[in-house]
What does this fold into?
Amino acid sequence: MIDFAKTIVILGLAALAGCTMSTGGDSDASAPAPAAGTLLTWDQFLARPRPAPDRTIRYGDHERQVVDLYLPRGAGPHPVAVMIHGGCWSAPWDRNLMNWISDDLRRRGIAVWNIDYRVIEDGNGWPHVFDDTWAAIHALTIQGREIRLDPNRAVAVGHSAGGHLALWYAAKRRRWMPPANVRMIPPPELRAVVSLGGLPDLELAARPPGSGCGTEVIRQLVGQGRPGRGDPFADTSVPRMGPLGIPQVLINGNQDRIIPTHFAEDYAGKMRALGDNVRVRVIDGTGHVELITPESAAWAAAVEEIERVLR
It folds into this structure.
C-alpha cells in the first residue's frame, strides 16, 4: 500500500507535470496540441493513439516482470535499445509511457526491449527494483538471439527514474562476475546510455529540495533504515559505483519542472572526475514530457545519439 507521504509525492509529481494519474490506453482520439510556447502535459501526451508492441515476453512470475518487444522489419539481427520507463520508481507508472518512442525506433530499424519492473509499492524499492532491472536486461541475451536481436549492439535509454536505472545497470555490469563454477550467459554489455531527464545521483536527490519525486521516495527506493542494509547508496547511487567505462549522454529540458537541470551537470562532473566520457545536452523549450515525445527536439537529439552509437 502507498502511505500518505508517498501519495502526496506522486500527486505532487502529477501536478507539476499538469497531468492526471492515468497511464493511458488504446485511444482513437487525436492528441491535443499545446499552445505555442507552452509545455506538453501528460494529458495531451497520453491522449494520442498508443502503439502496440509486437510481443510481450515474461522474465518472472510477477505481473510487472515483463518486457515488450518492438521488432523492426527485416531479417536482422537488429540492434537494440533497452528502454526503461520512469515515474519515481512508483505505481501507477509503467512501461506503456515508452510506447511512442519505442515505436519510433522500431520504424527506424532499431529493436526495442521495453522493460517493466516491480515498483516501490511491491515491497519497497530495494532490492526488487534493482533485481528486476538486472533480470529484465539479462533476458535480452538469454532470449534475444532467438528473435533476431543482436545484444552486442545495445544501448540503454531511460527516462526520469529510468535514466537512473539505465546508468545503474551499466555500473553494475562493469563489475559483474559469473558465480564461481557456474556457466551462464553474460548480461549485455551496453555501448552507451542515454538518460532523458534522469536522476542518477540518489544522494543528491535525497537532499532537500530534491526533485519532483520528493525525498521520501529515495529512502524507500534504497532501503534506508532496513536491518542489515548498511550504506544504502553504495550499490544504488551511480556516482558511488563509477566509473562506468562507456559513453553516457544526459539529455535534459531547460524547462523541466520535475528534474532540475543541475542534476545532469553535477553528475557529469563527478563521473568525468572518474574518467568517464559524459556529455550533457540541455534542450530549449523542453519540459519532462517532451523528452519521450517522438516529434520533439529532445527526442530528435536522443535519436541522434542512439543511432551514432548503434551504427
User: Anything to note?
Assistant: The chain has ten helices and eight strands. The first helix runs from residue 4 to 17. The chain has one domain: 4-18+40-176+184-310.
